[in-house]
Write a structure and sequence with these properties.
- This protein is an alpha/beta fold and 545 residues long.
- The protein has helices at residues 2-22, 30-45, 50-54, 61-77, 88-98, 167-180, 193-196, 222-229, 260-266, 286-299, 314-327, 348-353, 358-371, 389-398, 407-413, 435-438, 443-467, 493-496, 515-520, 535-540, and strands spanning 119-121, 138-141, 150-153, 155-157, 183-185, 201-206, 234-240, 251-253, 274-276, 305-309, 333-337, 379-383, 402-405, 481-486, 489-492.
- Strands 4-13-12-11-10-7-6-5 form an 8-stranded parallel sheet.
- The longest helix is centred in the C-terminal third of the chain and has 25 residues, at 443-467.
- The radius of gyration is 27 Å and the shape is globular.
Length: 545
């Protein structure tokens, strides 16, 4: 192809010269042939791209086709059920509810009900009309030491920072939360003007960078925290230990993104790189973590304080529970993020291969809290690919009290799953800081869509409750959700994730599946205590931890 290009280029140059000599006006044809020849000559000798070097000019079509591929696949190739991370069925349901369009489907389900993994709800002959049920069920979040408990919706907006999302997207999300009376998590980037402006309820997330409540050296600043946490809109405080998209991974905000506005919101120095370490500096052990929880609760005037994590090494959660029992300091809520979570940019290995999926995570957290007799004090929030009424119902059945959604709410804003969240080129103005793209997202319109989506999704969950013959979400148990695990084998969540007796981890003998977790954990450290466990312990204890 290199030789062919040289021949073609020589022919075009010769042809252009001949045309120009024939008639002076035809020298203008060089406007068309010149760029082609010059670009090809550059491609011949550039050292970085082998295909372009071997196929001058024409090799560049590869990059155009790569750019076009996701769009072609989404609109012309994928079926209604096989799109990833969200299928077209999922996305269409959200769009329809956000716009209050008809959200029913014709001619039966498109799902393969005989495929492994298919799930369904056990309905009742004695079903209850949803007109008799509370269409906006609430959950009171706040343990014995909480002075300002919060009545939360069962469905709220998960953590998304300003910077990750555009200001228009944040304004619309918080405006929808204000209209619908549900909560909006700020993400770890701090409370921006766009989070606070519309007046919706906020969950202030405190990450390892302590943005909005930090000293110049990156350590926690109690005075700054006290000032901001007492704002009326802030209803709960969430300590972020890890997230499903990239658990155990820190981050760096490059200097070029630290604008005067970002510097003011995050309390960082303008024009300098800002580091978010992978772990907290305010505490290094479970016992210190409980002291930090107590400090935040006191500084905030008694507001609910909890933490968010994606379950990794399970012994660490045992250690946290042991610390709560020993100190008598309880968090008010725990947000369990599934390994399938994620809205912005994350390393592929972390997104694909780190962190426990949501279903297992929620069941594990519920069981361990129940085993330590702590569940009565603590609410569980499930977060990760929750976008329908059935998603709400099945996570509550597993043990969650309420649920959060990030990508579901992004779809309500108009996200089309272009998969460009990490490139600042989001075509719908949701995940970008490009002002020209941001203008495509009209705040007033999308505010109503977020409100509609939330209201109709909660309503669909309530209708499912009625179909199961239940009146309140807390009546759901694992027995109500079924899953196909083989050609002619199905199990309820109760069988897949059997409950353990309440209080069974505060005295021996422990449930066999958690003996090793109890042996390996201590409130004095997040690290497992392997060196204290004998070979006999390993032989007799379950290896589930």
């Amino acid at each position: 192809m290199r030789k062919a290009f040289v021949a073609i280029a020589a022919f075009l140059v010769a042809l252009t010269i001949m045309l120009g000599l024939y008639h002076p006006f035809l020298w203008w044809s060089f406007i068309f042939t010149g760029p082609f020849v010059l670009l090809g000559l550059y491609d011949l000798y550039q050292p970085k791209h082998s295909i372009v070097r071997n196929y001058p000019v024409f090799g560049r079509l590869r990059y155009f086709m790569e750019e076009l591929r996701p769009k072609v696949y989404q609109y012309f190739v994928e079926s209604d059920t096989n799109g990833k991370p969200f299928s077209r069925l999922n996305r269409s349901l959200i769009y329809q509810r956000a716009k209050k369009d008809n959200d029913t489907i014709p001619f039966g389900t498109q799902l393969d009900v005989y495929e492994n993994g298919y799930e369904w709800l056990s309905h009742s002959i004695a079903a209850i009309s949803h007109h008799e049920l509370d269409v906006n069920p609430r959950v009171m979040v706040g343990g014995p030491d909480c002075k300002q408990p919060y009545s939360a919706s069962i469905y709220n907006i998960s953590a998304m920072s300003f910077g990750s999302l555009s200001k228009n997207a944040i304004l619309a999300l918080n405006g929808g939360a204000k209209m619908g009376g549900f909560a909006h998590n700020t993400g770890e980037g701090g409370i921006s003007d766009y989070h606070a402006g519309p007046g919706g309820d906020l969950i202030w997330q405190i990450g390892t960078g302590y943005f909005g409540c930090r000293n110049q050296d990156g350590t926690f600043n109690p005075d700054a925290f006290a000032e901001r946490s007492k704002v009326e809109n802030v209803k709960m405080i969430e300590i972020k230990l890890s997230q499903g998209a990239k658990p155990g991974h820190g981050g760096m905000l490059p200097a070029k993104k630290v604008t005067p506005e970002v510097a003011r919101i995050r309390l960082v120095k303008e024009g300098f790189d800002v580091n978010s370490p992978p772990a907290h500096s305010a505490f290094s052990t479970p016992l210190e973590m409980m002291a930090f929880v107590k400090q935040l609760r006191e500084l905030s005037g008694g507001k609910p304080v909890g933490f968010k994590l994606c379950i990794g090494r399970r012994t660490e959660f045992f250690a946290i529970c042991k610390a709560m029992v020993e100190t008598g300091i309880y968090v008010d809520f725990i947000t369990v993020d599934g390994g399938e979570g994620g809205t912005g940019a994350a390393p592929q290995e972390f997104s694909n291969a780190v962190g426990m999926p949501l279903r297992e995570g929620v069941a594990f957290v519920y069981d361990i809290l129940s085993g330590f007799d702590l569940k009565k004090h603590i609410k569980i929030i499930a977060s990760g690919k929750i976008s329908s009424g059935f998603d709400l119902v099945k996570n509550i059945a597993l043990g969650a009290d309420l649920c959060n959604s990030a990508r579901g709410m992004m779809f309500a804003l108009g996200c089309i799953q272009a998969l460009e969240c990490n490139s600042n080129t989001c075509p719908t103005g949701v995940a970008t800081q490009d002002e020209s793209l941001m203008k495509g997202l009209v705040v007033e319109d999308k505010t109503v869509r977020v409100f509609n989506f939330h209201r109709l999704t909660v309503q669909s969950a309530v209708e499912l409750l009625g179909a199961a013959g239940l009146r309140h979400p807390y009546q759901l148990t694992r027995a109500y959700i079924n899953r196909r695990i083989g050609q002619n084998v199905m199990q309820s969540y109760m069988e897949t994730f059997p409950y353990i007796p309440e209080g069974s981890l505060v005295q021996t003998p422990y449930p066999s599946q958690h003996e090793l977790g109890m042996a390996l954990s201590t409130s004095a450290s997040f690290a497992p205590t392997d060196y204290k466990v004998s070979a006999i312990d390993y032989q007799t204890a379950s290896s589930n931890n």
